[in-house]
Amino acid sequence: MGKPKFSRKKYVTPSHPWQEDRIKEENEFIKKYGLKNKREVWKAETRLRKYRGQARELLAKIDTGDAQSKKESDQLLMYLSTMNILPPKSTLDDVLALNTESILSRRLQTLTYLKGLANTPYQSRQLISHGHIAIGDRRVTVPGYLVTKDEEGEIGYTSDSPLNDTMHPARPKADFKSIPFKREETQRESSEETKEEKPKKEKSKEPPMEKPEKESTETPVEETKEKEAPIEKPDEAQTEDKQEPTEKVKQEQPSVEKTPKSTVEKPQKEEPAEPTKAPIKEPEIPSKTPKVEQPKEELSTKPEKKPTEESKKEEKPKKEKDEDKGGK
Predict the structure, then answer these.
(1) 115 and 184 part of one domain
(2) Mind listing the pLDDT tens digit for each residue in 186-221?
(3) Confidence at residue 292, expressed as pLDDT on a 0 to 100 scale
(4) What is the pLDDT of residues 42-80, one digit of tens each?
(5) Which of 38, 152, 181, 328 has the fewest CB atoms within 10 Å, i.e. is most exposed?
(6) Looking at the structure, do residues 15 and 99 belong to the same domain, yes or no?
(7) Positive or negative: CA dihedral 51, 57, 61, 63
(8) Is residue 224 part of a domain?
(9) Which of 29, 174, 186 is nearest to 110 (CA)?
């Protein structure tokens, strides 16, 4: 039995300490119903587990025709209807369809908020624990007290509470209307539906977005071709400019007929591109070639043609004289 001072545990802890889905669900219940800790969620789950386990056993016994099982099933359904957890004339299959929210919604804390006696579920918990809430003439200071169907209409402030004054600042205003918890579920469902519709619309908009991408890819290709064309022209002009000074070097005395052509061609080629390097290279090439090559040709041509035969005749007597001197 245990000591009367320390009662038995009224809840069962989860089988596994870390389960992501379970932890998220418990945190949502705490925020939604203004609970103190997860222990209150576990109490509701153990109570629900008790009702559902009893319903499963009775469903298996009713098929055998046992009178006691029928009596117990009627008692279970009557108790759940008086607690307003199930409507009247319900069956055992309805018991199996219950969830933890059906138990949490029957707590005194949630009903005081839904009645409009508090601005938030957390404030309703504070008012109950401070002794401002009563059921009829009886003061209740337990936020987790399960209210029956008959007691639901008797919830209100205590007779000696200062909140009975309508001008009290902690009391909700006359226009205040509590938001039922069921509407929040519908809002979540609607928000989820809208999120699902948005990606569908985005997918439908994706094919028309492909066209401008193709156009954008084609345009740079055309621009590059247009840019490449004017780049080739100045190269040709520079090569021709370089070839002209080489021809001038070979021709020492340029003819009078060619000079006007050169003067005419230069301004035409200088217009499309402003050559900066060309005027620097032109004086370098003629400076080397005419000075070195021309005098060699003059020297080589003049002495080779005339003095070849005479030089041979003059060399023979010189050799003979040298031999004679050497013999003596």
Answers:
(1) yes
(2) 445 555 665 665 555 555 544 544 444 444 444 444
(3) 46
(4) 999 999 999 999 999 999 998 888 899 999 999 999 999
(5) 328
(6) yes
(7) positive
(8) no
(9) 29
Element (H, E) at 55: helix 38-62
HSE-up (13 A, CA, CB side) for residue 135: 19
In a domain, 48, yes or no: yes
| Residue recorded with tokens 């046992």 | 66
* For residues 22-34, average pLDDT: 96
Distances (CA, A) of 14 to 18, 25, 35: 9, 13, 18
- State pTM to two decimals: 0.55
Same domain for 99 and 118, yes or no, is: no
Taking a C-beta distance cutoff of 8 angstroms, is the pair 125, 106 a contact? Answer: no
- Residue 186 included in any domain: yes
Q: Which of 49, 76, 104 is the last residue of a domain?
A: 104
Residue with tokens 């340029």: 254
Average pLDDT of the segment spanning 8-13: 90
Q: Which domain holds residue 172?
A: 107-199
Radius of gyration of the chain (CA): 56
Note whether 109 and 181 are within 8 A (CB).
no
User: Domain count of the chain?
Assistant: 2
pLDDT, position 211: 45
CB proximity list for 162: less than 8 A, separation 6 or greater: 168
Structure-token match 């226009």, residue found: 175
Q: Considering 140, 170, 199, which residue would you say is the last residue of a domain?
A: 199
In degrees, rounded to 5, the angle at the alpha carbon of residue 224 between the alpha carbons of residues 218 and 225 is: 95
Residues 107-116 pLDDT 10s: 999 999 999 9
